[in-house]
Write a structure and sequence with these properties.
It contains four helices and six strands; from the N terminus they run H-E-E-E-E-H-E-E-H-H. It has helices at 7-17, 65-72, 99-113, 116-125, and strands at 23-27, 30-34, 38-48, 51-62, 77-78, 88-92. A six-stranded antiparallel sheet has the order 1-2-3-4-6-5. The chain has a single domain, classed as Aspartate Aminotransferase, domain 1, CATH 3.90.1150. It holds the Pfam family YjbR.
């Protein structure tokens, strides 16, 4: 379901695995980044009229409700099948994606799932 040589995945992987205690596994055919809980997936889908539309090159993250609503107003964002009901959002990626924003989305999702010790470690790395 994904191409290991995908340059967008390579870039996303570097950002995600730089977070304290982060690791990668394959979950439901997609790369998933986690500590004790998953904080990001690469690739998702949307179910429309019983048909799944794939978003192969996208980032799925758990966001704050206010941020989620703002992101959903953008064409590049979507509610992923299954996970959307639990607060997750999908963001389509491209070569010209704002990678600072991608890093911020990963950071926010990580903070919601990683636990106090890892978040404190992340904060200690910041100037």
């Amino acid at each position: 379901m994904f191409d290991e040589a995908d340059p967008l995945l390579r870039r996303l992987r570097a950002l995600a695995l730089a977070l304290p205690g982060a690791a990668e596994k394959i979950s439901h055919g997609h790369p998933a980044f986690f500590t004790t809980k998953v904080f990001a997936y690469y690739g998702g889908s949307v179910k429309i009229d019983g048909v799944y539309r794939q978003h192969e090159q996208s980032l799925l993250v758990l966001t704050d409700p206010g941020e989620r609503d703002a992101l959903l107003a953008e064409d590049r964002c979507y509610l992923p099948a299954y996970l959307g009901a639990s607060g997750w959002i999908g963001v389509d990626l491209a070569d010209d994606s704002d990678w600072d924003e991608v890093g911020e989305l990963l950071d926010a999702s990580y903070r919601r799932t990683a636990g106090a010790r890892r978040v404190a470690e992340l904060d200690s790395r910041r100037p």
